[in-house]
Structure formats: structure tokens, C-alpha cells
Amino acid sequence: MNLEKLRPDKYLKYLYLPNLFATKRTKEILSVNPTVIPQREEAKEVRVSIFDYNAETIEENRLDSIQDCLHYKTSGRTTWINIDGLRKADVESICSHFDIHPLVIEDILSINQRPKLDEADNSIFCLLNMLYFNEEKHSIEQEQISIILAKEVVISFQEDAHRDVFTPLRDRLKIPNTKLRQRGSDLLCYALLDMIVDNYFVVMEKLSDRIEEVEDGVMKGNDPRALAHITRLRKELIVLKRNFSPVREVVNGFLRSESVLLEDRHSKYYKDVYDHIVQAIDLVENYRDVMVSMQDLHINNVNLKMNEVMKVMAIVTCLLAPATVIGGIFGMNFDAIPWLHSPYGFWGAAVFMLIIPVIMLWLFRKRGWF
Questions:
Q1: At what angle do helices 23-30 and 226-256 cross, to 10 degrees?
Q2: 268-326 pLDDT tens trace
Q3: Among 252, 244, 255, 250, which residue's Cα sits nearest to residue 279?
Q4: How far apart are CA 24 and CA 319, in angstroms?
């Protein structure tokens, strides 16, 4: 027998109770200490993409060095600088060139930061997370993204150089004379926020599919690990709630801002993003209610099955009680017991042992006990 194919460790790990409920995931979600500054690893690969455009023309470049994009500060057109992969020296270089406050640099390089919005005289900084759903682990992964809105410039910092949600936006920028191409950098900032928030619904849709699968297993009662699945899904809802609620504050900050970088005519677009994030928060609450109801249903099903087992065991115990009593009486160490020495004594006792349980079954059935 090939032991490598069996992989006993794959199954033995479930004998350890914390593994059954994925406590490692709990630690990932809840172990956030703002007083401890974690050290971010320097990115091995950095990609810089540039979109410099106006209504009629657009320049798209892929750069390998931060220094090559510094001259776009005075291009005279709207510029989107997207940096995939974070290195401290690169972040400090580009932020100092665009006169970004040092505290913003610290936030960009932070890890597990809460979504936030900060305003300065010449820029607006917002930080939030892009979410992805891992199909294999059935878990939500998050990537921190920082966005700086300055005059005619939007700078975005991403951690992962191999995935984001901005591909549709890049395609829209290549279409001439669109509203996005005709307006300023604040509308571009709105488009980035809108893409991130819209992707939240994609993640929630995949999570809802997983919730439906677990719910089917609970309804059918054929999933022995239903409680573990429910617990994991509730942890993923914590991730969603932790990200959605602060993002609402971030978008609301854009709406309340009086910065000259934001045009009044674009406030309706940020209001649309605000409505979307509020809707996402409501959906998370609905999912949470479904999970609570599902957990209650699972526990009730388990209790119902236990009650059925206990009822069968109680009935069997009651049916065996007459035979136990009769056998105990005739088994006593006395000589003067009726029918003890009769040739029909054994058969009489056996008949009583059968008739009495039959009568009891009839009475139980008549009373509707089973």
C-alpha cells in the first residue's frame, strides 16, 4: 500500500479540536495590535504604470523605476501613477517629490491598517483594502491600497503586483472624449474607489454561494462538519464588516470635504459610492442573520436527532422492564414461589414477558408517543 497517497496527516489533523474550527484563521483575523508596528518586507518586484491623459490624447507607460515617473508632476494633464509593490525608499522618494506629508508615508508602509481618510493642504490621502475570494480556502484575502489625490495627479500604491480590480478602468481610460477623460483627477479618484467598492459585491456574491452550499448541507442534515463550516463563514463575515464600516467613513469624508481638489459637481459620484457601501454593509448584516439562523437550525437538528435516539432507547428500556422484573422474581433464592416447580412455570413466565411489552407498545402507539 502506498502510504504517500493516503496522507494520514491530512485526516489526523481533524482529531485536534482547534483544527476542526480553524483557529489559525481566527488568529489571522483578530490578532491586530495597533501599538506594535510590524515590519513590512521589501517587495521583490515593483511595477509602475502611468496613464497621462486629457480628453483627446493619452500616454500609457510601464516603468521599472520610480525616478522615471517624477517628471509627470508638471505634465499639464491628468496623471494616474499606479505602483505595484512597496519599497520604503521608493515610497519616500515619490512622496517627497509630490510634497506628501511624512505621516502619509508611514501609513502607506503600514500593515493591517484600518481604512482611513486624511486631508492636507495640497493632497487627500485615503487607505482601504481590496478584497479577493480564495476559491480553494473559501476565505477572503485582502490587499491594502493607498490612494493620494493631488492637483492633476492620483497616485495609488498596491502590495501585489499580479492582481487588482482596475482593469476595466484602464480600458475606459483608453476611450477618447469620455467624461472620465474630460474631467480632473478627483473623478479619477472616484473611479478607483468605485472599482474597489464594486468588487466588494463580487466577493460577497461568491461568499453567498458558499453560504448556500452550507445551508443545503444543514437542511439535508448530511454534513457532519456543518458547525465548523458555519463558524468559518462567520469569521469571513467579520473580515467584511471590519472593512466595510470604515470605508463608509472614508467616502463620507470625501462628501464632507471642502478641499479645492474636489469639484462640487462630482459630489454626486461620491454619493453613489456611499450608497453602494451602505448597501454592502446591509448585505453583510443580512448574511450574519442568515448564519445565526443557520447555526440555530443546525443545533436544533442535532438536538432533534438526539431526542429521537433517546426516545428509542427509552422505549426499548421500558419494553425490557417487565421481562427484567419477572426474571428477577423467579430468580430469587426462595423455594416457596408460585409456579416455581410447575412444568408450565417457565412457559407462563415467557408468555407474560412477551404479552406485557406488546400491550405496552399498543398503549404507547395509542397515546402517540411514537
A1: 10
A2: 999 999 999 999 999 999 999 999 999 888 888 888 888 888 988 888 888 888 888 88
A3: 244
A4: 50
Which residue stretches of the chain are H helix? 3-6, 8-12, 17-20, 23-30, 88-97, 102-108, 167-173, 179-182, 185-220, 226-256, 267-330, 345-367
Q: Say how far residue 76 (Cα) sits from the centre of its chain.
A: 43
Give the residues across from 58 on adjacent strands.
53
Domain spanning 310-367: CATH superfamily: Magnesium transport protein CorA, transmembrane region (1.20.58.340)
Q: Who wins on pLDDT, 325 or 341?
A: 325
Q: Where in the chain is the domain with CATH 1.20.58.340?
A: 310-367
Q: Within 10 Å of residue 26's Cβ, how many Cβ atoms?
A: 15
Largest CA distance in the chain: 119
Q: Which residue has the higher pLDDT, 316 or 224?
A: 316
User: Which amino acid belongs to residue 25?
Assistant: R
The pLDDT of residue 30: 67
Question: What is the Cα–Cα distance from 321 to 305, expressed in whole angstroms?
Answer: 24
C-alpha cell at 292: 445565526
- Three-class secondary structure of residue 80 per DSSP: strand
Alpha carbons 61 and 76: distance in angstroms, whole number: 17
Q: How many other CB atoms sit within 10 Å of the CB of residue 29? A: 15
Segment holding 133, helix H or strand E: strand 123-134
The per-residue pLDDT of the chain, averaged, comes to 85
Whole-angstrom distance, CA of residue 332 vs CA of residue 293: 56
Chain region(s) in the chain for CATH 3.30.460.20: 15-32+39-301
Q: Does domain 15-32+39-301 bear CATH number 3.30.460.20?
A: yes
Q: What is the pTM of this model?
A: 0.79
Contact 92, 106 (CB under 8 A): no
